[in-house]
Amino acid sequence: MQHNTLSKHNQKLPFTRYDFGWVLLCIGMAIGAGTVLMPVQIGLKGIWVFITAAIIAYPATWVVQDIYLKTLSESDSCNDYTDIISHYLGKNWGIFLGVIYFLMII
Q1: 50 within some domain
Q2: Tens digits of per-residue pLDDT, 21-45?
Q3: Share of the chain above pLDDT 70, in %
Q4: Are residues 64 and 37 in the same domain?
Q5: Residue range 48-67: average pLDDT?
Q6: Which domain range does residue 86 map to?
């Protein structure tokens, strides 16, 4: 049984056009947000506020995205975030965290 599990996780997954589209989308959104909003915020708030916010926000964003990606990538099923969280924590927590995640995206 353990040999089957190890061989399942060692299989290479193909990098398809769909995956390439997601990579481009994520990079484009990050570049677009930085290009448009960062100079405006620096001009409005000042450089020291921007530097302080970057020092606080970068590690927080990295930790949250790291947890999010590990949760999705280490699950056995290929479902969306709400289904995977519901599998780990139960239906109520899945709904609650799904709504919170949706509100953070908006």
Answers
A1: no
A2: 888 777 777 777 666 677 777 777 7
A3: 82
A4: no
A5: 82
A6: 57-106
- Secondary structure letter of residue 74 according to DSSP: T
16-30: string of b/e by CB count within 10 Å (b at 16+)?
eeeeeeeeeeeeeee
**Tens of pLDDT along 63-77?**
878 877 787 777 777
Task: Assess if residue 18 is contained within a domain.
Answer: yes
- 3-state percent helix, strand, coil for the chain, nearest multiple of 5: 85, 0, 15
| 36 part of a folded domain | yes
Kindly state whether residues 69 and 105 are assigned to the same domain. yes
Cα 66 to chain center, whole Å? Answer: 7
Total domains present in the chain = 2
Q: Within a 10 A sphere around the Cβ of 85, how many other Cβ atoms?
A: 22
